[in-house]
Amino acid sequence: MYAPSSISYIKAENAKFRSPYLPVAVFVGGTSGIGRAIAEAFARHTKGNAHIIIVGRNRAAAESIIASFPYPTTEPLSVQPKHEFIQCDVSLLKNVRQVAKDILARHDKINFLVLSPGVLSFARDDITEDGVERSAALVYYSRWKFIYDLTPALTKAREENEDAKVLSVLSAGNGGKIDLGDLPLKKASTITAIKSMMTYNDIMMDGFASRFPSVSFVHCYPGYVRTPIGSNSPSFLIRTLSFITNSSFSPLFYLAMSPEDCGEYQLYGILYTASTPGAWRIGKYGNHIGKKGYYGDDNARDVLWEYTLEVTGSK
User: Domains of the chain by range and CATH?
Assistant: First the structure.
């Protein structure tokens, strides 16, 4: 049984993080919820001494977050850090391609890529122009495409002995078996489709780790967190769970983790737990969970990879 470290210990360890170079961190879906909390923790512990890019739809929220970041004043820097926002509806793959291209034009190296857009739901009638269900686009296809298009900058960072780590925030360890004959999930029930998305993220990280062995690819399960994400979901179940979790009248409110603590734990996970290149799965305390609840294998990894290459137009 894993005994979680106290949040005070985790914060103290994160505060020790020092980088001999100016890190570049990209947060996709960083304008609210867990992504925002990780971005804020990263900015806080680097004392603002980092290039930070937030990608999302809400410009006002992003500008408010960036304004709260520490401004670097204590350490002499040869390059002035930039904290910036790129507006993007990441449910559309053409937008992902363009934003990735823009980021690569600005930065030839990326050290941290954190992906947290979307919420697990499945509305069969909400199909994007790419032909995939919108929530699937957010929690899987757009994330895969961001990683795929940005791997040149991640691998270049490792070539220069810098960190190169990717974190996908979803639900490691809570997936289910997948049907390799129905990867579009046309025949799957809603619950099966949702669990499949979790497993797709596991297999996605294995697929990238096998092809880009110098980089760390992490899938995490943050647990129940008090965030507004899900309040506007087309799924009645997701909206209800979001309301219950965020209501101070509900017991779940007190069982759920605060976004701030979640941000600290997940930052610890990518800074320290994912200590070597390869595929990692971490839990809500930033702890290594190994193959718990894992439903992939080498064949599934390769079949899903080829299918996703086709769907995302990456062949």
Answer: 7-229+259-311 (3.40.50.720)
